[in-house]
Amino acid sequence: MDFTQLSHDLATLCRRTAQFISQEAATFDRGKVEHKGLHDLVSYVDQETERRLVAGLRELLPEAGFITEEGTAGPDAHTEEFVWIIDPLDGTTNFVHGLPVYCISVALVQHRELVVGVVHEVGRDESFRAVRGGGAFCNDQPIHVTDVANLNSSLIATGFPYSDFGKLDDFLKILGAFFTRSHGVRRLGSAAADLAYVAAGRCEGFFEFNLNCYDVAAGILLVREADGHVTQFLEDGDPLFGREIVASNRLIHAEMQAAIGEFWQ
Known about the structure:
There is one protein chain. By secondary structure, this protein is an alpha+beta fold. The protein has helices spanning 3-25, 44-60, 92-97, 168-181, 191-199, 213-225, 253-261, and strands spanning 34-37, 40-42, 65-68, 82-90, 103-110, 113-121, 126-131, 135-138, 141-142, 155-158, 184-186, 205-209, 229-231, 244-248. 34% of the residues lie in helices and 26% in strands. Helix 1 runs antiparallel to helix 2 (44-60). The chain is globular, with a radius of gyration of 17 Å.
């Protein structure tokens, strides 16, 4: 299979679908927002975007299964050779409030290995694309993580807990460690954007917990193909289904894990 061509086709589908999100953003009614859980928002825009993506992906690769955030493709599929992992609108809370950082995130897994990923950042109309072994790109220009060699000179991105606060005290201690040991900490509100920005060299590292596979799948491949490193908090396990993630330019990874490890159990 030509994964490079598939990545271009996927990027085109995501860009076309992002136009629908942009159109809806101009007139969006917050009264139409629903709650899937505590502070976990969903709108008709998420659902319709996912339906459009699923329809387009079925044309691109009819034999593939789906893991989707909103469940519009039917039951989650983990057994097919190929599985699409889709977050139709990563950053829904930003979208609802009119903050322009939200993304479409789509990745293809072959036998649980990430092979293609696209993150389309809607507000900036930026298309981040990666193919396993083929590099990472933003609007078809190659991207690479930074060569900053220490945490003290790094900008770090993170995501705040919004529904599960059981480890909030530990997280706040970790946050404090990064406050005092880096150039600063940013919370964009979209894990897909955070990971894309690490890959593009806009920040050196990103960490967050309680994430789902659809939040991070495409972004993990972007960082790896931009010569970065992605693990779980305290070990080198695969973070795709691990619910926690540390991504970096590789050079500061050990420092990031050490800072987290002081407070995380």
